[in-house]
Amino acid sequence: MRPSGRQVSELRPISIEPGFTRHAEGSCLIKVGNTHVLCTASVEDKPPPFLRNTGLGWVTAEYGMLPRSTHTRSRREAAQGKQSGRTQEIQRLIGRSLRAAVDRVALGERQITVDCDVLQADGGTRCAAITGGWVALRLAVNKLLKAGVVTSDPIMDHVAAVSCGIYAGQALLDLDYAEDSEAGTDGNFVITGKGRLVEVQMSAEGATFSREEMFGLLDLAESGVKTLIEAQKVAVA
User: Which residues of the chain, if any, have pLDDT below 70?
Assistant: First the structure.
């Protein structure tokens, strides 16, 4: 039995509230169980310097956790004067994942920054950020299309992400903190609506894993991402 009482292939309850903030071109609050992430997408009418005069747009991301998003207060990274390696790694992952769904020629020479702020953490924050980040991005692009700023939809597909792992010898979908902290193997899977893999992060935390176990986790992830994409479709409908 999982600590949460869920079945091995059962996601935590998912909700996505679009348009959660007033000022951002696109935003949502995504809740995956007790993990809550605010995602906003901001449009700038110029690309980063390295893309000027190339005809290409850019999608990037920033990620952060509020001081009391976890059990004990953590200092704001701004107060420490630098981002942690974990933060930098996660926001690069979010940016890569979202760019996989974007036609940068159709986007034109502009940049969209997706900010993902963890309000409450209970495992899987990077996966929730990618899933919610796509919704914020989609809503921002919808505004560009409606205004005629872009004439061809630059978003080619959905992208969502979910964690899987081996806990107490059992392959599980969508790990919460209690499971993730004790998992012998854990992984994050970023997958498109067409079933294409964007990124797979897997590591043996306490026990090595076999090829068969790896593909078993991938099967769980694919089923979970299909459900997450259905939630995305409802949110942007």
Answer: none
